[in-house]
Predict the 3D structure of the following.
Amino acid sequence: TLKKWVSLTSFISEAAVKKLQPESGWICAFSEVLPVVAGRHTQDRAEQHLPRFDAECRSYAEGMARLPQMKPRAGTEIRFTELPKQMYPDGATPEEITRHSMDLSYALEKVISQRYASQPLDVLAELQFAFVCFLIGNVYDAFEHWKRLLNILCRSEDAIGKYQDLYINLISVLYHQLGEIPADFFVDIISQDNFLTSTLQV
């Protein structure tokens, strides 16, 4: 319904869409990819010291190594903010590394400073955009980005005081998003660990 759509996209402006959508303007469930290096022909594979296609694999690792390295075709990937892999500043002491690993406020500040310094609330637009791309477009990469961004938001305790409006509105955003998915959707089949439970408990 229109009411449901509005509740799931309340922070997504036209400017946010232009910033996040692929340059091609098309969002697809599966990214269009190209091989990093040519390997279609036997001669190409020989030049790269790869075995022939018809040679039998001797192990799983060998089979995985034979798969071509792929990269998204330029202009087809969703332009999400690059989330930091290192959650602490360079040169941090062991104590600081521990603190920044428990409280991800430093990582959140890096995310905000990259694209949202003038309007931190636009982080919620990206969170909603990722969720809608997964919910409607079945874009798995968008789901993974949504999980990682939500994890940073929920584990940034020191940032709550600085970005009060952001966190007040995050509660509403999450409320509407969680109403669209089954309760057991986030349970890891192997570990039985629920991503949301562990994230929201922090």
The CA atoms of residues 46 and 141 lie 33 Å apart. The longest strand covers residues 33-35. The radius of gyration is 21 Å.
